[in-house]
Design brief:
The structure is a single chain. The protein is built from ten helices and eight strands. With 263 residues, it is of the alpha/beta class. The chain folds into two domains: 55 residues, no CATH class; 203 residues, 3-Layer(aba) Sandwich (Isopropylmalate Dehydrogenase), CATH 3.40.718.10. Helix 7 runs antiparallel to helix 8.
Length: 263
C-alpha cells in the first residue's frame, strides 16, 4: 500500500472539515446520514478511513475483508483478503466468528469453518496455522459451530468442506487474485474455442463470476464495502447490492453478537 494516501486519510480523519471522499463517506454512515458506504478507491485508505471514523466492533482487534466466492457446492466466504497482511491466533478466531455471521447473512445455513493451510491433516503448515488449528477446534466446537479443520487452496472453489475459510490478509489476497486470474483465463479460452454460442455464453458468465465485485469489511461499526479501483460498472453495482444486503441482514449486529465476550 502506498504511504501517501494512508497519511492523507489519517490526517483528514482528525479534522472536522474532511476533504477526502473516503472520510466524508464514512462519516455519513457514522452520523446516520447513510446506512452504508462503498469505496472503489485505495484499499488501504478505505480501510483506514473506516477504522478511524467508524471504530471497531468490540472483540475485533483487526478488520478483515470478506468476499463471497461462487464455489461449486456452496458459496464460500473467504477472509481476510487484504485488510491487513498479518494475523495471530486471536485474530483468526475473530475472523472465523465474523465470517460465520456474514455467511449466514448471505444465505449459507450452518456454515462449516475451515483454516486455510497447505494440507488437510492437523499439524500441517507453519507455527501460526498449527497453533490456530488446535485453538479453533476447541473454541468453535465449544460454541456449537462446525469446524472443518485445515483446508487447502482448492477447497475455496469447491465449497463442500468449508463455507467459511479464514486466513491472513496476505495469503487471502494472493488466493483471491489467483482465482480472478484463472477465471479470466478460462473465460477467454472458452470464448476462443466456442465463440458466441449459447452454452459458451453461460460458461463464460459463470467464469466471470470469479471476478469479484468487492468485499465487505468485517469488524468496523458500520457497513463498508471495498471494491476494485478499476472495476466495471457491473462490479460497482455488485458492491452496492452487497452493501444493501449487509444492511438488510444486519450483518454488523450479528457480528457484534457473535464476538460478544471476546476482549
Amino acid at each position: 500500500m502506498d504511504a501517501a494516501p494512508l497519511e492523507v486519510v489519517r490526517a483528514d480523519a482528525q479534522l472536522e472539515s474532511a476533504q477526502t471522499t473516503v472520510v466524508v463517506a464514512a462519516r455519513a454512515v457514522r452520523d446516520g446520514l447513510a446506512d452504508a458506504w462503498v469505496s472503489v478507491g485505495h484499499t488501504g485508505a478505505s480501510v483506514a478511513s473506516a477504522v478511524l471514523t467508524l471504530g471497531r466492533i468490540q472483540g475485533m482487534q483487526r478488520p478483515a475483508l470478506a468476499v463471497v466466492v461462487p464455489a461449486l457446492a456452496s458459496p464460500v466466504v473467504l477472509l481476510d483478503v487484504g485488510a491487513t497482511t498479518t494475523s495471530s491466533v486471536a485474530t483468526l478466531e475473530q475472523f472465523a466468528l465474523a465470517g460465520h455471521a456474514f455467511a449466514q447473512a448471505v444465505g449459507v445455513s450452518n456454515p462449516a469453518i475451515g483454516l486455510l493451510t497447505i494440507g488437510s491433516e492437523s499439524g500441517k503448515g507453519d507455527e501460526l496455522r498449527v497453533e490456530a488449528d488446535t485453538h479453533l477446534r476447541e473454541v468453535l466446537n465449544a460454541r456449537g459451530l462446525v469446524y472443518a479443520g485445515p483446508v487447502e487452496g482448492f477447497d475455496v472453489t469447491r465449497g463442500n468442506r468449508a463455507q467459511v475459510i479464514v486466513t491472513d490478509g496476505f495469503t487471502g489476497n494472493v488466493v483471491l487474485k489467483s482465482i480472478e486470474g484463472a477465471a479470466a483465463w478460462a473465460a477467454h479460452q472458452i470464448g476462443l474455442a466456442y465463440g458466441d454460442s449459447g452454452p459458451a455464453r453461460g460458461v463464460v458468465r459463470a467464469a466471470a463470476a470469479g471476478d469479484f465485485a468487492g468485499g465487505l469489511l468485517l469488524g468496523v461499526d458500520g457497513v463498508t464495502v471495498v471494491g476494485h479501483g478499476a472495476g466495471t460498472a457491473a462490479q460497482v453495482i455488485g458492491c452496492v447490492e452487497l452493501a444493501q444486503r449487509a444492511v438488510e441482514q444486519d450483518v454488523i449486529g450479528n457480528i457484534s453478537a457473535a464476538l460478544s465476550g471476546l476482549q
